[in-house]
Amino acid sequence: MKIERLPLNALRAFAEAARAESFKSAASRLNVTPGAVSRQIKQLEERLGISLFARHANGVHLNPAGRQLAKDIDSGLERIAAGVTAARERAHQAPMLTLSAPPSFMQLWLLPRLAKFDATLGGLDISLDASQSLTTPAWQGAGARLAIRYGRGPWPEAKSYRLFDDELFPVCAPSLLAQYDRPLEPADLADHALLDVAWESQQGISFPSWQTWLDAAGVGDRVAPPQRRYSLFSLAMDQAIAGRGIMLANHPIAMDRLESGVLVRPFGERHVLTSPLSYDLLTPPSGEAPPAVARFIDWLLDEAAAFDRVAHANCHAPAHFTAY
């Protein structure tokens, strides 16, 4: 079947529903009813001759076929975005920066702060690429290609600047803590769903898992491993905010939600898992950045440093343990 014969509205509805594994969330984003989303996805399933979601009384979850289709659609959108970026580079003379960053980091930390850069410095045409692919940074005439990566250095063919070290801690909705009349302890996690992120590293390293945290907290033999896995931190966080479980997060991913009160740390500043991973800004190993790009790099490093100071300002000797 040729892709152009598939109903594009149905593909769009599926893509939105797949990101949050929720017809209701997709309906809100598309400004339609959940019933309309359900009908469009059903139409797509009938055209393909396969089921894409496992439907339950309490919601829907992608099945293996659905996960593969969602991945393929995301790849297609990345190619479209790359084509649009190339067209803009050909059409504009203004300094151009293509910045690649992990999808959840871009959504939860970077995007909310870019408006501040536009308001204070500006003068730079920024194209964002939500990707974890290990592309090589480069200066490109009046523009540049930079990357923010989550992993473990050193990074080949790049100069790196540390943005954040990695510390992981559980987060959940405040309603979960309301069930207790005492401070939560690690063993209490046996009564809750643990939300896991199936993060895939192109460096061949593993994201510190719930099992690592549970073992370090001394309850690895008393708490079942995670029952729900997601491809992005942002997806797991949506479920945590909805009160459907507890996830492991770090300051860049969770701090804004913690400050707004939609998430809390059930153990406070206790039981923090220090991992060997970090968020790093990658630039070309040599050469001079265009002035507008250099201003952006300085702004990003200053913004990360200020955020890191705030994130740790109220820490009082938390109980740390190391992932490796």
From TrEMBL:
Pfam families: HTH_1, LysR_substrate. Signal peptide: none annotated. Gene3D superfamilies: Periplasmic binding protein-like II, Winged helix-like DNA-binding domain superfamily/Winged helix DNA-binding domain. Residues 6-63 form the HTH lysR-type domain. SUPFAM superfamilies: Periplasmic binding protein-like II, Winged helix' DNA-binding domain. It comes from the Bacteria. InterPro entries: LysR-type_TF_proteobact-type, LysR_HTH_N, LysR_subst-bd, WH-like_DNA-bd_sf, WH_DNA-bd_sf. The keyword Transcription applies. Keywords: DNA-binding, Transcription, Transcription regulation. Belongs to the LysR transcriptional regulatory family. This is LysR family transcriptional regulator.
